[in-house]
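Q: Joint fold for the lines below.
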Amino acid sequence: MIERNERKAYWRHTKVQMLTSLLPFLLAMIILPLYADALNDKRVLGVPLGYFLACHGLMVIGFITVAVFINRQDAIDHWHGAHEDF
Amino acid sequence: MAFTSSTRLVNPRLGTYFGIFTAAFAALVLMALMLEQLGVPDSVLRLLMFAAPLILFAAVGLNARAHEAHDFFASGRRVPAFFNGLVLGVSALGGAGFLGLTGALFIAGFDALCLSIGWCAGLVFMAVLFAPYMRKFGAYTFPAFLGRRFDSRAVRVVAAVVACAPLLLLLTAETRFAAYAASWLLGQPEHVMTVILMVLVTVVLAAGGMRALTWASVAKAITALLALAIPATIFALMLSNLPLPQMTHGNTLRVLSRLELMRNVPIVVAPPLSLDLAGVGLEPLAKRFIQSFGSVGSFGFVLASLVLAAGIAASPALLPRSGTTPGVYEARKSLGWAVLVVGIVLLTLPAVAVYLRFLLFEQVIGQTPEQLPAWFQLLQQAGIAQIGSAAQPVSFGRLGFERDAVLFSLPIAAGYPQVLVYLALIGGLAAALAALSATLFALAALLAEDVLRGDPELASDRGRLARARIALAGVAIFAIWLATVVTADPLQLFLWAATLSASACFPVLVLAIWWRRIRTWGAIAGMLTGLGVAIGTIVLAESSALALPSALAAAIGLPCAVLATIASSLIAPAVGRNVLEQLREMRVPGGETVYDRELRLLRLKNRTPS
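A: Joint structure:
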């Protein structure tokens, strides 16, 4: 169980993690599709690059974002002793 | 009574059970394929492919009955992360994803990717912003979470009323999608199928609540994924010798782009703030597949993906799902699985769209009506596709295609056995049913727990379950009526539901978890403002008094709701110490689930000495 005075540090850490997870993803999902047409001249694996990034790229970025978030947040929980104890 | 940590109660044989289910389903499809070769009449095959999976779903659901509130509303909090994520992913997509999005991708090409991005991002947002805290709090419904969070009955009722709007729209949309797929499968009118499906779903939900919902939905999700993967994989194998449609449809796309160039498909440019995804009925193919911003403008694209993301993340139908995992860590992990499942589906759907478009451009466009291939004549007879006038060669501009039929048109166009067409249909139906039952249950639980008078936490388990079952029956009847009366485009209804939950639920939920200084009045003002502004914007946009697509109403509603929440929180009286203490506790994963502990203490207090 978490110490009372540890709560503030834990929550600050968690907030920073939330922002570092969401902001890059948000940026990618807003900006990538806007430049898709310009990127479509190049190809990767035979797929036009712009389409590839907007379709495959964002799904992969999304999955990596969540995976890294789960891993980091779990580390934060353990660091502050806030993890579940079963 | 499992009120303490129930992590250790996870059933270790779940994998075996669903392995058996998958094998049974595969055996069913193989048997149907053999029967078709043996010359069994088509009507028998249709009935087999419709009834057998539904019987399997119902059997799985009815085997998971619930007698305690803990099981009925939270599935006993013992659903492992993978299964929870599977259900979450497929019920987030639902019929709108499987049937609607495939068609939108087929007709609008790249522009429909705004919806895919929104779906994926919505689950990412839910994972980071909401799911762990909803799980630690452990409330059974979305309004119960907010009501307990602010320790206010008023917030609870307002949240319930506000959440009803998106839930009803979503319920209607998914019922329509399910009835659409079922009526194609069985050849019966849609309203008959609506009644049959709704009765089936309601019986299963009434018997087992969230528990039956979870396990039946796992079965539905497996069916939907298999039914999506099999036709697309076979086609990818025939075309490129590699059974990975997600990766290999790029080459087909290149050929398709060349064909489109040869057939003089125009490059169209949409105004920045437009959102013209295909509607119902026969829609003309709008533009080149790969070209971006031809029917959805650049600004509309970004806004649509953001609005859908917020709407999915705060969807009152999906949020209770995070309460069913054994712990906070598992709740996070289940969202990871959900993003993976949704990502794979969202990479397969464009492949289906590209393949069908490729076949269309290679074999249909540019041909005279006498030269048309047999499969296209079949589609024409079924009313799925249409060419303008009869005499000239088929040209791009005069070709109409039915949006929701794209998913099961690929097996027809590729010349597969009929059973694979029915397989694609049952996949769409299963996905729509998963979303439909999640929404139906969320709405019924919300009515029984939050709207009806009295404190449900004080009632006995029997009373609570009885109330929920009555609410379930009532909502089901109302949904049947709604689905027969409302004739609007179901994808549009889905987008409206997303836009309403994005503007009414998302801001308050974010602030309730992440902003310590939000007050009771702020939450109420935020929800009411969000809902009011969003509905007002939709009405104005639909009456074309406002140059904004109605699906993007949250682009105005969400900022208004945030402002209203913050402004009223700053002037409202402070909240009690216990509310802040509860918030601090909710933010930390360790320790007992807040809601379960409250229930336990309440029972201890009210126990009469015997």
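Q: Anything notable?
A: The two ends of chain A are 11 Å apart (CA to CA). Helices of chain A lie at 7-34, 36-39, 49-79.
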